[in-house]
Amino acid sequence: IGQEHELTSNSLEPTELTLLRLGQRVLLVWSDSLGAARPGHGDLHAISLDESAAPVSAERRVAPSELHSHSPSIVAWGQRGDTALLGWLESEPNSTGSGSSSLFLTEVDAEGRIVTAATEVSLPGQARGFSAHCGEDICRVVASLDRGDRGELWGLGFSGRGAPTLRPLAVLEGPASQSIAPLLLGDHVFYVDPSKNGVPLLRRITLEF
Given 30, 165, 194, 207, which residue has the most CB atoms within 10 angstroms? Predict the structure, then answer.
């Protein structure tokens, strides 16, 4: 059993912790209401650890926002392995499917510092979750959206240059309120469709963009 390290001392409501190994560092990112613009909202925070899990950088707020930042995801990107794609969602807390949300994508280093300015992608519905997978030159992202009367999957390719184009991928049969985040592995998207008769179906589609 290794030594225990206290990573933060003033967090208020840390949630949705995700982590990724980048070279000799481990990057941790989570959502926390500490320092947020409004009560009930969260901003993304990050800290970097060495191989013994000891902090090597101070905790930092990644991207302060007026909205609620949540559901962070980190994916290794590029050949060097020392930067990553960081994606997250922004929305009003407790908003319904009639609202909308935004997906933010940016490149970060092993200490959680933004390398390139974040790209905002406005989503045509309330996001239930998303998944990303990066190759050497491009990252693919698929999001599950609540469109009010139905659930849909939308996807995009992100290279860090220019505005990505959203594409509709699939319409879910079941209630949008029961849709969950998809899983993207390479060109394959795996997702659960609640279906009309209430029996969950595991489906797969292959991306060509």
Answer: 30
Selection from 158, 156, 97 nearest residue 128 by Cα? 97
- Mind giving me the DSSP string for the chain? --------SS-SS-EEEEEEEETTEEEEEEEE-TT-SSTT--EEEEEEE-TTS-B-S--EES---SSEEEEEEEEEESSSSSEEEEEEEEE-TT--TTS-EEEEEEEEETTS-BSSPPEEEEESSEEEEEEEEE-SS-EEEEEEEE-SS-EEEEEEEE-SSS----EEEEE-SS-GGG----EEETTEEEEEE--TTS--EEEEEE---
For the stretch 22-48, pLDDT in tens is 988 999 999 988 777 777 788 999 999
- pLDDT at position 88, please? 96
Whether the full predicted model's pTM is greater than 0.85, yes or no, is: yes
> Is 98 within 8 Å of 53 (Cβ atoms)?
no
User: What is the C-alpha to C-alpha distance for residues 202 and 167, in angstroms, rounded to an integer?
Assistant: 21
Class of residue 19 by CB neighbours under 10 A (exposed 0-12, middle 13-18, buried 19+): middle
> How many Cα atoms within 13 Å fall on the side-chain side of residue 41?
17
Partners of residue 121 on adjacent β-strands: 103
